[in-house]
TrEMBL record:
Any Pfam family matching the protein: PrnB
Protein name, as recorded: DUF1864 family protein
Family annotation (InterPro entries): PrnB, Trp/Indoleamine_2_3_dOase-like
Length: 373
């Protein structure tokens, strides 16, 4: 049993249809189960004619699409996406090969309020388990990578809720430290997931076998990235913790592109908080007023809790950087950039930024105080 299995039932009771994971997994509006079970064999043989016929066979009539609820539309995009990525992996632009899929992708995007292709959520969280699991290769390492991303979805949803609370609080409020402590618990799942990935997915398998399936495709003259792990938006936690008022040109540009691949509620979260004041800035401002020998206990607790969150974020990013360096090393890489569109150097920059913010907060706890008069 994974962390996902423990937390997901609570999500399935939500009114938000994109959180009703069990229903999306169960849905098969295209009747694609049998065809997609054969997908790994088609990919192994690089059978472009079979892949093209398969995609054409799954394309539904627009009248059917217009009758689907969000859950059915998400499941349909998930299943079409497996063939989109497979064709592109073998050098074929899927929409050019099967033009009738274009209006369907556009309508599915409209109905789900997402980009007109599959995302990491379609490929992992909304993907069925067991015999119905959709995979490009059918290899155990691919399944492990999907599991690693599934593990973090419920905790990320919970972290965004606690970050919303955090944004409305000040460091002197006892709830500030509490919101940070809860965020730390949720973000720890990202570290657990990346440790699971290190233990179960080799850099060579990702770089040379799986990475080619995550290439961008052209949809109506615009390129859309494949289901990259970078679309799991830990950066939404960064936003309220330190990033919203501490700009970095390269990271800001990456976020501007990545936000489009998020769920609608997560895009709204970004829009609300991108111009706010970060927890690090709030704490720094509060500390600047404290010159007495004893820091107020609420402020000390806030600093400790904020340092803890930043330390967990730093740990995740350090391990992610280690994996990326191996997967994109000169001897095994096929691509210069990650599947999320960012170079490995950006991961290094974000790690440095996270570490700098952690150091700033930690040193605030160590600085000498002026004795009381």
């Amino acid at each position: 049993m994974t962390l996902y299995d423990l937390v997901a039932p609570g999500l399935d009771t939500c009114a938000e249809p994109r959180y009703r994971i069990a229903e999306i997994r169960e849905a098969d509006p295209l009747g694609a189960d049998a065809l997609l079970a054969a997908l790994p064999a088609m990919n192994r043989d690089a059978d472009i004619p079979a892949l093209t016929v398969a995609l054409r066979a799954l394309v539904p009539d627009l009248d059917r699409v217009s009758e689907w609820c969000v859950i059915e539309a998400l499941a349909a995009m998930r299943d079409l996406g497996m063939l989109l990525g497979s064709l592109k992996r073998h050098g074929v632009q899927p929409v050019a090969a099967v033009p009738e899929v274009l209006p369907v992708l556009e309508e599915l995007a409209r109905r789900t309020d997402m980009v007109p292709r599959d995302t990491v959520h379609h490929y992992t969280t909304w993907n069925p388990l067991g015999s119905r699991q959709r995979m490009y290769t059918g290899e155990e390492m691919e399944a492990h990578l999907q599991d690693a991303v599934r593990m973090v979805f419920p905790s990320l949803v919970a972290a965004l809720r606690t970050c919303t609370d955090l944004a409305g609080l000040e460091p002197y409020d006892p709830g500030f430290a509490l919101a940070l402590d809860r965020t730390a618990q949720h973000v720890q799942s990202m570290v657990d997931a990346i440790d699971f990935t290190v233990d179960n997915v080799s850099p060579g398998f990702f770089a040379r076998v799986l990475r080619p399936y995550f290439e961008e495709i052209d949809v109506a003259g615009r390129d859309y990235l494949g289901p990259a792990a970078a679309q799991v938006p830990l950066w939404l936690v960064d936003l309220t913790v330190w990033q919203c008022d501490r700009p970095h040109p390269a990271y800001d540009a990456f976020l501007a592109e990545s936000v489009a691949y998020s769920l609608p509620a997560w895009r709204a979260f970004h829009a609300v908080h991108k111009g706010g004041t970060s927890a690090v800035s709030k704490l720094s401002a509060a500390l600047s007023w404290e010159t007495v020998h004893r820091m107020p206990p609420e402020l000390a607790a806030a600093a400790v809790s904020l340092a803890r969150v930043l330390r967990i974020l730093k740990t995740f990013r350090a391990r992610h950087l280690g994996i990326a360096r191996k997967a994109y090393s000169d001897d095994i890489r096929l691509y210069d950039q990650g599947s999320g569109g960012a170079p490995v150097a950006l991961l290094r920059s974000v790690l440095d930024l996270t570490r700098d913010n952690e150091t700033l907060v930690r040193r605030s706890l160590e600085r000498p105080r002026t004795p009381a008069a």
